[in-house]
């Protein structure tokens, strides 16, 4: 097909559906990088079709742009994946406001400083496109890992001074499938279309859990983290040898 360098990959996909194959299955909604619906793997890297220009993935005439559905989610049809498990893990972290003040009757507002608001600014940018979930290599070997997107959603509320924060979410975050399997591969951060420092937020959450447990004299359930780190170090040693 003929496309201009500044056309979006999404434009090309829509053209295929309209003029070549009406059965092509894919998702899209806003087409402006806000809804996250059209996330897919474009030439080997996760991204949004609506934010990827043809010139970003093809340099000349005759180049082939390969599109495949996201990883770690069952393919429903063509470029569409079943996001049931992804959103279940998202719901498991209680991605909603749990007031720190039990009785808010009569309270006009809960003021925050600029610094307190900035503390959870990054995770509010998440559009749940699941690009990070697809790119995470941990899920290749540990499919029950809650995944980077869910942890980012938890961080949005854990870091909110008006929310009860960490405690109501500990049963999910501080578990073998919670934050600890993360190996700091940074793949999630690399593909995030909103440039959220996902790996940083995961590590921050790990530190918050450790501080919470230490303050209460409780044991730290980081077996998953230790095992992952040992495996990563072993792999690095074997590669260097």
From TrEMBL:
The protein's annotated pathway: Carbohydrate metabolism; tricarboxylic acid cycle; fumarate from succinate (bacterial route): step 1/1
Domain 2Fe-2S ferredoxin-type residue range list: 1-71
Pfam name, any one: Fer2_3
Single Gene Ontology MF annotation: 2 iron, 2 sulfur cluster binding
Cofactor: binding comment: Binds 1 [3Fe-4S] cluster. Binds 1 [4Fe-4S] cluster.
Enzyme class: oxidoreductase
Annotated ranges, domain 4Fe-4S ferredoxin-type: 116-144
The protein's Enzyme Commission number: 1.3.5.1
SUPFAM superfamilies: 2Fe-2S ferredoxin-like, alpha-helical ferredoxin
Cofactor(s) the record lists: [3Fe-4S] cluster; [4Fe-4S] cluster; [2Fe-2S] cluster
Region of interest (Disordered), residue spans: 214-241
GO annotation, biological process: respiratory electron transport chain; tricarboxylic acid cycle
Swiss-Prot/TrEMBL catalytic activity: a menaquinone + succinate = a menaquinol + fumarate
Signal peptide coordinates: none
Keywords: 2Fe-2S, 3Fe-4S, 4Fe-4S, Iron, Iron-sulfur, Metal-binding, Oxidoreductase, Tricarboxylic acid cycle
Family the UniProt entry places it in: Belongs to the succinate dehydrogenase/fumarate reductase iron-sulfur protein family.
NCBIfam families from the UniProt entry: dhsB, PRK05950.1
Subunit note: Part of an enzyme complex containing three subunits: a flavoprotein (frdA), an iron-sulfur protein (frdB), and diheme cytochrome b (frdC).
The protein's name: Fumarate reductase iron-sulfur subunit
Organism per entry: Salinispira pacifica
């Amino acid at each position: 097909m003929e496309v201009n360098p500044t056309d979006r990959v999404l434009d090309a996909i829509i053209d295929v559906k309209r003029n070549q194959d009406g059965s092509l299955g894919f998702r899209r909604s806003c087409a402006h990088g806000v809804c996250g619906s059209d996330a897919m793997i474009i030439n080997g890297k996760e991204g949004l079709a609506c934010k990827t220009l043809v010139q970003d993935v093809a340099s000349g005439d005759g180049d082939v742009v390969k599109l495949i559905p996201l990883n770690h989610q069952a393919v429903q049809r063509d470029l569409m994946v079943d996001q049931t498990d992804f959103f279940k893990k998202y719901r498991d972290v209680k991605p909603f406001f749990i007031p720190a003040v039990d009785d808010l009757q009569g309270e006009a507002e809960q003021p925050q400083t600029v610094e307190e608001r900035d503390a959870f600014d990054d995770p509010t940018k998440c559009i749940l496109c699941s690009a990070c979930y697809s790119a995470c290599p941990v899920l290749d070997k540990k499919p029950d890992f809650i995944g980077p997107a869910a942890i980012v959603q938890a961080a949005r509320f854990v870091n909110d001074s008006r929310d009860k924060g960490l405690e109501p979410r500990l049963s999910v975050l501080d578990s073998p499938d919670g934050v600890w399997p993360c190996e700091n591969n940074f793949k999630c951060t690399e593909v995030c279309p909103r440039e959220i420092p996902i790996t940083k937020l995961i590590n921050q959450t790990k530190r918050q859990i450790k501080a919470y447990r230490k303050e209460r004299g409780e044991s730290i359930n980081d077996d998953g983290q230790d095992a992952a780190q040992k495996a990563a170090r072993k792999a690095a040693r074997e590669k260097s040898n």
